[in-house]
Amino acid sequence: MKFFKLTSLALLGAMTFAGCKYEEGPRISLRAKRDRVANEWAVKKYTYEGEDRTTQLIDAENGFTIVINLGRAGGYGLEIVKKTEVDGKTKYITNHTYDGTHFGFDACCHIAYTGFRLQMPSHIQYLMPGGKWTFDKGHYKIQVKPELSYDNENMTQKNTIDWAIVMLKEKAMKVKGRDENDKEWILELEAINDEPYFY
């Protein structure tokens, strides 16, 4: 019985300290880090050098927002998504959605989409082609590796972009990093899916 109590106490202590890895928590989590990261994430807030610049990633007037899909198997994608109403139903479209006549935003809002995309910060634009993600050795960072075959002459490609994890909860994540000018940015993300995400 004494052995059981000591083992339980040691296990609880190990779980507590294992969960304290990030600045803003959580203190304890029973889900693996990879399982918490794997989801579709909507941008909640974006700051650049301490200044709120969320409007660069959420265009409320035209209905655009950024969705980052981090798959459990290590793939990721970044999409510009537009929430719209069609026949009284809420519908989300991307630049790849086909409505039977047009692809994506060609039918409704190509000019607004192009304007939104061009004003996005370059370190977010780097992510547009999708690619792979992994943790660093200590699980302190998410290392994002964009697909380098994507060709855009206006962008300087990087092999790996580090996102330092500030908070990693089941339904919320906060990451920070530095852009090509060594300026700090912070992304606060909200999980879109309520159930485990295994893609």
Topology record:
Elements: H1 2-19, H2 33-37, E1 39-48, E2 51-52, E3 58-59, E4 64-70, E5 75-86, E6 89-93, H3 110-119, H4 122-125, E7 131-135, E8 141-146, E9 161-168, E10 172-178, E11 184-191
Antiparallel strand pairs: 1-2, 1-4, 1-11, 3-4, 4-5, 5-6, 5-7, 7-8, 8-9, 9-10, 10-11
What does this structure look like?
The protein is α+β, with helices and mostly antiparallel strands and 199 residues long. The chain has 2 domains: 1-27, no CATH class; 31-191, Beta Barrel (Lipocalin), CATH 2.40.128. The chain has 4 helices and 11 strands. An 8-stranded antiparallel β-barrel has the order 1-4-5-7-8-9-10-11. It starts with a helix and ends in an 8-residue tail after the last strand. 19% of the residues are buried. The mean pLDDT is 83.
Per DSSP, what share of the residues sits in E-state strands of 2 or more residues? 35-45%
Write down the CATH class of the largest domain. Answer: Mainly Beta
By secondary-structure content and strand pairing, the structural class works out as alpha+beta
The CATH topology of the largest domain comes to Lipocalin
Unreliable runs, pLDDT <50, ≥5 residues? none
In brief, what are we looking at here?
The chain has 199 residues and is α+β, with helices and mostly antiparallel strands. Helix content is 19%, strand content 36%. The protein has four helices and eleven strands.
Give short descriptive properties of this protein:
199 residues; alpha+beta; Lipocalin; 4 helices; 36% strand
